[in-house]
Amino acid sequence: MTEKVVLAYSGGLDTSVAIGWIAEETGAEVIALAVDVGQGGEDLETIKARAMACGAAIVATRVAGSSALAGAGDPCAG
Q1: Confidence label for 31 from pLDDT (cuts 50, 70 and 90)
Q2: I need a labelling partner for 25 at 20 to 30 A (CA). Which of 19, 35, 66, 70 fits?
Q3: Is the pLDDT of residue 22 over 60?
Q4: Alpha-carbon distance 52 to 47, whole Å?
Q5: With 70 as the cut, is the pLDDT of residue 69 above it?
Q6: Neighbour tally for 8: CB within 10 Å
Q7: Per-domain residue ranges for the chain?
Q8: SS3 state at 36
Q9: % helix, strand, coil for the chain, step of 5
Q10: What is 12-34 written as a DSSP string?
Q11: What is the CATH number of domain 4-66?
C-alpha cells in the first residue's frame, strides 16, 4: 500500500515544488489540499490545475470563507 501525504497547498512556488520533492523523497502519493478562506487571489480551479500539473495524485479544494474563522479571535492579541 502506497503511503499518502497531505500537503496544505497554497498554489505558490514553494508548495508547488514541494509536491514533486515529497513524492520523490518519500515515494508517497501527495494529496494537495487548498482552502479558500477569503484571502483573494487565484481561483481554486487554477490552483487545482497547477497542483495536478506538479504531480499531485489528488487535489482537494474547499471554500471556508470568513465564517470558518468566526470566533477564532486574534492569535496575536495578548
Answers
A1: very high
A2: 35
A3: yes
A4: 9
A5: no
A6: 10
A7: 4-66
A8: strand
A9: 35, 25, 40
A10: SHHHHHHHHHHHHHH-PEEEEEE
A11: 3.40.50.620
